[in-house]
Every structure is written in C-alpha cells, then in structure tokens.
Amino acid sequence: MGKSFRSYFLLLLIFTSCGTFFNQPFNTSKARIGENTSREGILKGILPMKEMVVGVYKFRDQTGQYKLVENGSTFSTAVTQGGTPILLKSLEESKWFTPIERENIGNLLNERQIIRSTRQEYAANLEDKQITSLPPLLFAGIILEGGVVSYDSNIITGGAGARYFGAGGSTEYREDRITVYLRAVSTSSGQILKNVYVSKTILSQGISANLFRYVSLRRLLEVETGITKNEPAQLAVKEAIDKAVENLIIEGIIDGLWIPQGGQPVADLVKAEYLKETEEMESTVLLDRKLEDRRGRSAFSNSGGTAHMDGDYPNPKASIAINSSIKMFFFKRPNFNINIGVGYLKLENEQVFKDEFITADMNLEYNVLPYDNFTPFIYGGVGGIASSGNIGETLAKFQYGIGLEYLPVNNIGIKIFGEQNLMFTDKLDGLENGKRDDYFWRIGVGLNIYIGKPHKRVKSVIMNN
Predict the structure, then answer these.
(1) 2 torsion bin: left (phi>0), alpha (psi -120 to 50), beta (else)
(2) Exposed, middle or buried: residue 322 (CB in 10 Å: 0-12, 13-18, 19+)?
(3) pTM of the model
(4) CB-based contact 313:431 (threshold 8 Å)
(5) CATH architecture of structural domain 45-102+140-282
(6) For 298-451, CATH number?
(7) What is the domain partition of the chain in residue ranges?
(8) 99 has which bridge partners?
(9) In b/e form, how buried is each residue of 214-237, taking b as 16+ CB within 10 angstroms?
(10) For 41-90, what is each residue's pLDDT tens digit?
(11) How far apart are CA 44 and CA 51, in angstroms?
C-alpha cells in the first residue's frame, strides 16, 4: 500500500508540476491596455440629462499602511498613491461627469500664462488684440473629496496540508480589505450633497507540493512545486472607486440631485434595483456570508440510522433506529428550538441480547449558524425508553448529540447526527453487572421540512457569527 501511495502521489506531483511549469512567464511581455473591472453595474445604459462638471483636487491614501513582509521592514505602501487618476478615469467612464484638471492646477495656470505671453509678443503689431485672449476655464459645480481610509490586513487566513512519509502538499490563503469613502460637495454652498463608502477584499492564494524520499541507500529524490496567486491591489482600488462613483450617482438620482434620461420612470427603476442590492448587502457579513431567512418557525423531522448498545454484554451489533419529531422556535432569535419526538429502535448483542424499544425525547437544540444554508448544531434533553413488549415499564434517560444540517433550498434541510443516550439504570439489557449504567448510541441521517412564517430578516450589524 505504501508503494502504491507513493506512486500515486508522485504521478500527481508530476502533473501539478507540469501545470505550474507551463504557466511560468519565460518571456517579457509587451505593454498592454490596462485591465478593466468586470462588474456589471445598475447604471449600465442609463445616461444623465446633462453631464456635471466636477473637480478632484486630491483623492489619496489616508491609511499610512505599509506592505507586510515576513522578514525585515519595507517603505513600500500597501495602497496605491495614485487614487486621483483612478477616480478621474472612473468619472470619465461613468459618462455622468465631465472631470476637469484640479490636482495640478498650478501647471495648467502656468501654461496658460505662457500661451498669453507668446501670443502678446507675436501680436504686438496687429490691430486685432483678441488673438491674445484664451477661453475661460471651466469651473466645477461639484468637488469630489475622500480617499482610501482603511486597509485591513489578514482579516482571514488559513490553509490545509498533509504529509506522509516525506510526501506532502499544502494550500494557504489570505484576505485583506480596503475601504473607500467618496463625498460630493457643492461649490456654491459648501454643503456635502452625498457621502458613500465601499469595501473590497483582496485575495491571495498559494498551493505547494513536495516529495522528499530516499529511493535507494545513497540516492535522494527531492521534488518541489507550487504556485501563488495574488489579486492586484490596484485593481481592487479601481473596482472599489468604480462602485463608489456608481453609488454616488444612484443616491443622487434617488434624492433628486440629478436626473437621468427618461425621467422619473427610469429613476424609479434605478431606485428599486439599488434598494434590492442594499437589502442583500445588509444581510451579508464580513466573509461574503449571506444571512437569509432560510427556515420557517416550525418543522417536521424524520431520521433513520443505526443504534449501538453499550451495556453489560460484549459484542454489540448495529441495528435499525428511526425517529420522528416536531421542532418549534419559541425564542427571539432562531438559534434555539425545542423539538419533541418519538422513535423506534433495536438493541442487540451477538447471540445474547436482542430487543425492540419505543423512545420519547424532548430536546433543546442550538443552531450555530441559523441564517446560513450549512450549520452545525448541538442538542440535549431528557426522555424515556420502553421495551415494545412492556410499554408500561418506561426507563428515564438523558441524551445529547451533535450534527450538521445543509439546506439545498430554503425550508428543506438534510442532517447527519450522532447521539449518546445515558440511562439512569443498569437494567436496559436485563442484566445488572458492575457500577456503570447502560447507555446506547444513535447515528443517522434525516430530513427537516420547515413550515410557517420565518423570522424577520437579520441585518449584518446585528448578527456577525
């Protein structure tokens, strides 16, 4: 088996190495047109009645964040210092604004003065003095201010790896986040018309595999390969600024600051799409987890599996176990529910003990992630068990368990679970021997069907599991 494993791993390593090898940049590349962000916006195809003249003096990095390095220090910044050109490009691409030069206004004024001086020198003897004049500069009705205000490093890190007899592999990932603020200021009154902010994550991933093995007494085989992928920070800043510009336009349309072509019907359509997106974002927490009302306030549950006796007799056998229950959410938040159920099971030991039982349980259950489609859960409670041949003699028990539930669609859950049932007596298998009470295990899968009105939609500021 060891040789077979090493052979399979070596074959996998070769294919992985080939994939990495053929993706290496062996040659220099030519200059190319800059990448564009790929997101589809709400304003696609919607244009303004009239483009607005805006000025941007400076849109800069306000974080003071330097790049993280494993060893030593660096004075290279984590965020691009060219936020102003990126914002001007986004304004131009939006087709809602006419940006004018303000970042280097001194250079513009100096050049205009040179033009005037040159024209005056060559037009001194001409009767038409108008040749020396220049058209007036455009003035901005709106100034855009703001910047990159936050760069959070390593908001989530992780990975996985395994090694067996010198053969191993690993994966790693890291996620950072930047936050951009953008505000529109009226030049006539100084009023802040709109203030928006947008966050964007930056993902870094790495995968590696290696083999370190003596193929003979004096021959050592060592193979190593890997690849790392880092999302460009500049493109993340560009996408965040693009989204901030879009939100600024949309909120301005909603508040009547500017009017789209098509008038109020188009404005209503934009507002509806924006409110839908806002509601979705309000229910999305840090790691792009969507908090949704996936479960009704009550449920019917059916499960099946096996039961394993652990009593005074040796050699227990796995036997059938089925259960039906009702769940009810009585609490303000849907983490907790009470479920009441009945079940049927067989318990047996080889050639010694075999009996059929009826059970009744009441449990308090806690869902760790109630607004996710995948959640662990734990539960515990009390109940009773009686032999099917002697229902009148019911034995008390305490049970607890853990499990996982997955919802492929809302209100339909598939679960797997494991449960231990502790008796308060040593008589379950009919034999009293020793000081330890009998107990048994239940392991199974089940189906939850939720019904009724769900809880109100949760907001990400309330819930951050």
Answers:
(1) alpha
(2) middle
(3) 0.68
(4) yes
(5) 3-Layer(aba) Sandwich (3.40)
(6) 2.40.160.20
(7) 45-102+140-282, 298-451
(8) 54
(9) eeeeeeeeebebbbeeebebebbb
(10) 777 888 888 888 999 998 888 888 877 776 666 778 888 888 899 999 98
(11) 16
